[in-house]
Amino acid sequence: MSASAHLDATFLALADPTRRAILARLAQGDASVAELAEPFDISQPAISKHLKILERARLVSVAREGQRRPRRIEAAPLAEASGWLERYRDIWEANFARLDALLDELQRRPATAAPAKRRRRRGT
Predict the structure, then answer these.
(1) Could you confirm whether domain 3-80 is CATH 3.40.50.150?
(2) DSSP assignments along 67-104, one per residue
(3) 31: which of 9, 18, 35, 92 fits an S-S bond (Cβ 3.0–4.6 Å)?
(4) Please, what sign has the CA dihedral across residues 71, 72, 73, 75?
(5) What is the sign, positive or negative, of the torsion defined by CA atoms of 93, 99, 105, 107?
(6) Residue 119 burial by CB count (10 A; 0-12/13-18/19+): exposed, middle or buried?
(7) DSSP codes, 34-73
């Protein structure tokens, strides 16, 4: 799978609130499917489907401990997604800086009457 495909799979997996909640639970420690299903009002097979998407995105792995197969969170794909987002931080910060400057300028301007609204003619 290409780096782009991995990133797509990660963001697809993160797009669902149930999957994000599963990851939040796994950030506290390994858990079985039954343990992961407990707080949700959905079936265990539905949780398993969410886990398959998380596993495909490499966000979750399955360990084997005898009969138990706990899931655990994997940090690498989250780090890759974070790194991708980080590349755009400079752009966001520059936009926020321009917005801050504009807001400061608008606050310093004296209050003036609102400009008259222009009427649009039909057909133009």
Answers:
(1) no
(2) TB--EEE-HHHHHHHHHHHHTTHHHHHHHHHHHHHHHH
(3) 35
(4) negative
(5) negative
(6) exposed
(7) HHHHTTSSS-HHHHHHHHHHHHHTTSEEE--BTTB--EEE
pLDDT of amino acid 113: 54
Residue spans per domain, the chain: 3-80
| Rounded Cα gap, residues 108 and 102, in angstroms | 10
In this predicted model, what pLDDT tens digit does every residue of 94-119 receive, in sequence order? 888 999 999 998 888 876 655 566 66
39-60 pLDDT tens trace: 999 999 999 999 999 999 999 9
The alpha carbon of residue 48 and the mean position of all alpha carbons in its chain are separated, in whole angstroms, by 21
pTM for this predicted structure: 0.71
Q: Count Cβ atoms below 10 Å from residue 13 Cβ, excluding itself.
A: 24
